[in-house]
Amino acid sequence: MSTARWPHLRVFSPPWLDDCGMTVIADDEHADLMRASTRLELWLQFIGRHQVKTMAELGVLRGRFAERVLKGCPDISTYYLIDPWKHLDDWKKPANKDDETFENVYNEAMTRTQPWESKRVILRGRTTEVVHAIPDGSLDLAYVDADHTLRGISIDLIRIWPKVRAGGFIGGDDFCPSIWHHPDRFEPTLVYPFAVYFAEAVDAPIVALPHNQYLIQKVEEGFTFSDTTGRYPDPTLQGAHAQKAGHRWGRLPQQLLRQMKRPATP
Ligand SMILES: C[S@@+](CC[C@H](N)C(=O)[O-])C[C@H]1O[C@@H](n2cnc3c(N)ncnc32)[C@H](O)[C@@H]1O
Known about the structure:
By secondary structure, the chain is an alpha/beta fold. It has one domain: Vaccinia Virus protein VP39 (Rossmann fold). Helices cover 36% and strands 17% of the residues. It is built from 8 helices and 9 strands. It has helices at residues 27-35, 39-49, 64-72, 99-113, 127-130, 150-160, 191-201, 237-261; strands at residues 9-11, 54-58, 78-83, 120-124, 139-144, 164-172, 206-209, 213-217, 225-227. Strands 1-9-7-8-6-5-2-3-4 form a 9-stranded mixed sheet, with helices on one face. Helix 6 runs parallel beside helix 7 (191-201). It is globular, with a radius of gyration of 20 Å. The model is unreliable at 13-21 and 245-261 (pLDDT under 50). Bound molecules: S-adenosylmethionine. S-adenosylmethionine (SAM) binds at residues 57-61, 64-65, 82-85, 88, 91, 95, 126-127, 145-147, 152.
């Protein structure tokens, strides 16, 4: 179903299991993904089912995700790890630490992924600095979880897209309904709605998944935004911004309610 305000948006409400008709993933697979209890479980399932062999992770940090994916998906033959593992003066996000901390984080990532040394390709640098090392059209999946600011997500999606093979996928984290994922002193998180606009620009379908994940497939089926979570009713920047006010003020009645329920102190 589409809405008049945003004709490409298809919002499915439960029972969404009944023939969503999505092009990106089949309905039965979608049902399984919706049942995944964590983002990791979701991607392990997806990677296994789509027989992903070559993938890249943009933004690796301690390598926890990479470790679990490499352990759980033995069919992967090449796993690119992209991360500068250093302090970035122009990145206003809480994960930006000092160089010494990042050196330890880098060492941890190396230790965690050591058992798959023959499969891992370490690309230490920003996406723009190292992405050329990946051959065009070679990735089955790129998992984008690096700089989630407007600058970061736009650079990452645009630079990694040519590296994905026809029929391959981009997935990613922090597809948060509100751009105010972190306190105001940090840059807002623009994965959503930017990823939706990116999908429209390249004329590809995008699906919102549970646990703030999304999936874009590189196919010539045309752009659609399928929201089966019901959490993204208005993919305008104004809509994503408005979620903040809704979030803040939405808490007030709950707090008041709790206060009212609290027994009066003598
Ligand atoms: C959210 S963490 C990644 C978490 C990891 N994917 C996981 O699931 O365990 C974000 C990482 O992105 C990296 N990063 C920041 N800016 C980047 C850029 N321009 N290019 C590549 N990586 C970047 C940071 O160094 C940080 O380690």
